[in-house]
Design goal:
Layout (H helix, E strand, L loop, with lengths): L2 H22 L7 H4 L15 H10 L4 E5 L4 E6 L2 E7 L21 E12 L2 E6 L4 H10 L8 E3 L26 E2 L2 H10 L5 E5 L1
Parallel strand pairs: 1-8, 6-7
Antiparallel strand pairs: 1-2, 2-3, 4-5, 4-8, 5-6
Length: 205
C-alpha cells in the first residue's frame, strides 16, 4: 500500500469516527451547531442589544405591540408600525388552531396582553399572556371543559442549566411546549427589558 492510499484510508476512518461521535452525542449539543446554516431568515442569529441600546430604544421607540406569527414561528416587537426586533419561536406540541381546552397542546390565537411576569420561571424567565379571556372562558364552559391557563412567553431551558453559556442560545428544533411561546434565553432577556406589562400581543395563525 503506497503512502497516498494509506493517508486517504486514515482520513476516511477519522471522518467516519467523527460523524459517529456527533450522532452519539447530538442530544448534548445545542441546536445551533447543526442548523444555523440552514435556518430560515427569521431564525438567523444576531447580537443582543447592549444595555445602552436598550435604554435608547425604550426612550425613542418604546414597544407598543407584540405580534406572533405561528405559521412562521416568529415573534415581532413593534413600536407603532415599526418592527424593532424579530425572534424565532417554538409553540405548543400541537400548534395548529386556537387553544380550546387544557391539555390540547395548542398555542392561543387572538388579541391578548402581557399582564404579569415571573423572574424565577421554570424556564428561565417568563411573561404571562392574558389567556383565557372572557370569550375563551365562555366557549370552554359551553363544551364543559377547562380553557387552560398559564400561557407564557418563556425561555427554552430550565433554570438549573440556564447559566451555561451555550444553553443561553439554545432553541429546540421542534414545537414542544404545552401551549406557551418559547424563545432562546438570550431573547427572553431582551424581551423582558423591552416589553412593559399591559403591552398588547396579537397571535396570528
Amino acid at each position: 500500500m503506497n503512502k497516498k492510499i494509506f493517508f486517504l484510508l486514515v482520513l476516511f476512518i477519522l471522518s467516519i469516527s467523527g460523524i459517529l461521535i456527533c450522532i452519539k452525542y447530538s442530544h448534548l449539543i445545542p441546536t445551533s451547531y447543526f442548523t444555523s446554516s440552514s435556518l430560515p431568515n427569521s431564525e438567523i442569529t444576531f447580537s443582543s442589544f447592549s444595555d445602552s441600546e436598550i435604554i435608547k430604544l425604550r426612550k425613542q421607540t418604546p414597544v407598543t405591540e407584540i405580534r406572533v406569527f405561528k405559521s412562521e414561528r416568529k415573534l415581532e416587537l413593534l413600536s407603532e408600525s415599526h418592527i424593532i426586533r424579530a425572534y424565532p419561536v417554538r409553540l405548543g406540541f400541537a400548534p395548529i388552531g386556537h387553544k380550546k381546552q387544557e391539555g390540547d397542546g395548542k398555542t392561543p390565537e387572538g388579541r391578548y396582553s402581557i399582564d404579569w411576569r415571573n423572574p424565577k420561571s421554570a424556564f428561565y424567565k417568563s411573561l404571562h399572556i392574558s389567556y383565557p379571556n372572557s370569550q375563551d372562558i365562555a366557549q370552554a364552559k359551553q363544551r364543559g371543559v377547562s380553557p387552560g391557563a398559564n400561557i407564557m412567553i418563556h425561555g427554552s431551558t430550565t433554570s438549573k442549566i440556564s447559566k451555561l453559556p451555550e444553553m443561553m442560545n439554545y432553541l429546540p428544533r421542534g414545537d414542544w411546549t404545552l401551549g406557551c411561546i418559547a424563545v432562546r434565553n438570550i431573547d427572553i432577556d431582551e424581551i423582558w427589558k423591552l416589553v412593559d406589562d399591559k403591552t398588547p400581543i396579537i397571535i396570528y395563525p
